TrEMBL record:
PANTHER family: PDZ DOMAIN-CONTAINING PROTEIN, SPERM MEIOSIS PDZ DOMAIN CONTAINING PROTEINS-RELATED. This is Uncharacterized protein. InterPro entries: PDZ, PDZ_sf, T15H9.4-like. SMART domains: PDZ.
Length: 290
């Protein structure tokens, strides 16, 4: 896999930082599975060309992945694979070299910077994370459609922002809605056409491209929920009240049910206060109020 050299003066990278030595050349996953494996492979390089619906590798092996090893033996051809699978063993240790994968490296946590003019830059108090993302995708004859699952839009600052990622897609591994794509292959990106061109050109030539992503630091609990401030405050107060009620509680293991035991209902009631954002002492009397 060809490496994309990163310019040391690239945005968000320190001058003494080089990432080339960290770039993964390949990704190999290992599975302990039961025979038969239920896939069809190419005779020359053991590239997976079809996964049967009843295969045990459904959701684990994909088109373009190569079988590179079984147990302690390196597999380089279809004949070696066929010979190894004929051995009288029930389970095998399968090694798969991925044709598609995503790799991410956290560069640093800093504050957001806005380019006002060519020589004027404004620093905001908003914290952001800078990530370096490498995505490998080599087209094969078996892949009829190449879909990264990445959809972008222009935000209110005319920067490219991730609008949506298809679930379980290659882009969804390390990208999410709200991330800002600053660079592709060390080239600053300012339009959708530039992003599309650099990604398509890299996939066709080397099968790998890199992204420099600026991700705002969000509240992980409400990452994808847009709530009003007063609703969030009420929810926080209610959560604190429930935490107080749960202090000292030790969960007990369930008891075995006795079929001869009669079920009785207790008339005791447990009341929980409804938390509001209104202080009762600040309420004013109202005429004709029920």
């Amino acid at each position: 896999m060809a490496k994309n050299k990163i310019d040391n003066t690239s945005l968000a990278l320190d001058k003494d930082f080089t990432i080339d030595q960290l770039l993964p050349k390949e990704l190999v996953d290992h599975y302990m599975i039961r025979k038969p494996i239920g896939v069809r492979v190419h005779k020359q390089d053991c590239r997976i060309t079809h996964v049967l619906p009843e295969s045990i590798l459904i959701g684990k092996a994909f088109l373009g992945d190569c079988i590179v090893g079984i147990d302690d033996k390196v597999i380089t051809s279809g004949d070696e694979l066929h010979t190894k699978l004929k051995e009288k063993t029930e389970n095998i240790h399968l090694s798969l070299k991925r044709n598609m994968f995503s790799w991410c490296f956290h560069i640093r946590t800093t504050v957001e910077k806005i380019q006002i003019d060519r020589d004027v830059e404004r620093i905001t108090p908003n914290p952001v994370n800078h990530y370096f993302v490498l995505i490998r995708l080599r087209p094969t004859p078996e892949m009829q459609i190449i879909d990264l699952g990445l959809f972008v839009k222009y935000n209110n600052r005319d920067r490219l922002e991730v609008d949506y990622v298809t679930p379980n897609s290659l882009a969804s591994i390390h990208l999410k809605a709200g991330d800002v794509i600053r660079e592709v292959n060390s080239q600053q990106i300012c339009s959708k056409s530039m992003l599309r061109y650099h990604i398509a050109n890299s996939i066709a030539s080397s099968g790998v491209f890199t992204l420099l992503v600026e991700s705002p630091i969000r509240d992980t609990v409400r990452d994808h929920i847009d709530l009003a401030d007063d609703v969030v405050q009420i929810a926080d107060k209610a959560a604190e009240e429930f935490k107080k009620l749960g202090k000292g509680y030790v969960p007990q293991p369930p008891k075995r049910a006795n079929p001869k035991r009669n079920i009785k209902l207790k008339e005791e009631k447990t009341e929980y206060p409804i938390v509001s954002d209104i202080d009762p002492s600040k309420l004013r009397p109202c005429k004709n109020a029920s």
